[in-house]
Design brief:
Layout (H helix, E strand, L loop, with lengths): L8 H5 L2 E8 L12 E8 L2 E5 L2 E5 L4 E4 L5 E5 L12 E8 L6 H4 L5 H10 L3 E3 L1 H16 L3 H15 L4 E3 L11 H17 L6 H7 L4 H12 L3 H16 L7 H7 L5 H12 L3 H7 L3
Antiparallel strand pairs: 1-7, 2-5, 2-7, 3-4, 3-6, 5-8, 8-9
Length: about 290
């Protein structure tokens, strides 16, 4: 397995590196790196983990992650089928800010920028009119070179520092406690969950996968994700259920079992805990 502290060599040679990605499916492991990363998902859907945040993503998803923040994206299962014709497209930008002089960073003009960068260290998802404006600038950045790339990046940071149309992803108290060995272990657990959450996942099997006792595994997992193993699995299942609720042909009962829950009572309770709505009301809200 490749080191999970990923060295983005292109960024070591230039302050900003941007590329279009076109692949059949997402297969990077959980990783982090020393640079900032901005990802615009132009074609794809699945689940995104950033720090201790678990969310669905769809076409148009736009996020920025700070340095050393663990993150990974998984496609839905159908993307990995041998005969799948689905594709993934994205614009990925890695950038450093060490070229900004300390005198500027500490100046009054940079107060809002510093506030923004503190939020980006937790990962942010951009929405609303700001999303549209950032996407426009990002496409210009993709086609530009040299100093113009820096100007476009500064325009994006300036725009975001003046808006509240973004939300932080990982929790305020989240910190990266992973070392390389941890990253390989937690990545194995994440893969196990994402590949099997619609089935009967057990704490015993997860602990065995990590080569740990159940008690040690529970403490380890909570310390690394800020969630219990059950909470984490249920968040993944509820995220999948939210996606299935867009399908008018599926009943609430069908969605319950297709999301990995073994009874409606447990499904309804967990769904309301995570979304503040019961499944029926959530489904009705999609029609408004």
């Amino acid at each position: 397995m490749q080191p999970l502290l990923i060295e983005t060599n292109a960024v070591l040679q230039q302050s900003i590196f941007v590329k279009e990605v076109n692949v059949k499916n997402l297969n990077n492991p959980l990783h982090f790196h020393k640079e900032y990363e901005m990802v615009l998902m132009t074609k794809s859907n699945g689940r995104r983990i950033v720090g201790d945040s678990i969310e669905n993503f769809t076409e148009g998803d736009l996020v920025i992650m700070g340095p050393n923040l663990p993150h990974v994206m998984y496609n839905d299962k159908e993307y990995y089928a041998p005969d799948s014709e689905l594709e993934v497209s994205a614009i990925v930008t890695h950038f450093r800010l060490d070229w900004l002089r300390e005198s500027f960073i500490n100046s009054g003009e940079a107060t809002k920028l510093n506030d923004l960068l503190r939020d980006i260290n937790r990962g942010i998802k951009i929405y609303g009119k700001s999303h549209k404006r950032v996407v426009t600038i990002l496409n210009e950045l993709l086609l530009s070179t040299g100093l113009k790339r820096i100007i476009h990046l500064l325009n994006i940071l300036d725009l975001l520092s003046e808006t509240n149309e973004y939300e932080c992803l990982s929790s305020l108290g989240y910190s990266n406690l992973h070392n390389h060995k941890d990253m390989q272990r937690i990545n194995k657990i994440y893969d196990y969950i994402m590949n099997n959450f619609t089935e009967n996942i057990t704490l015993k099997d997860a602990a065995a996968l990590a080569n740990m006792t159940i008690a040690s595994f529970c403490k380890y997992f909570k310390g690394r994700t800020q969630k219990t193993f059950t909470q984490f699995v249920n968040e993944v299942r509820i995220g999948h259920a939210c996606k299935l609720l867009y399908d008018d042909h599926l009943s609430i009962s069908q969605i319950c079992f297709q999301s990995g829950f073994n009874n409606l009572t447990n499904f309804n309770r967990n769904f309301k805990e995570y979304t503040k709505l019961n499944p029926s009301d959530f489904k009705k809200s999609l029609r408004l």
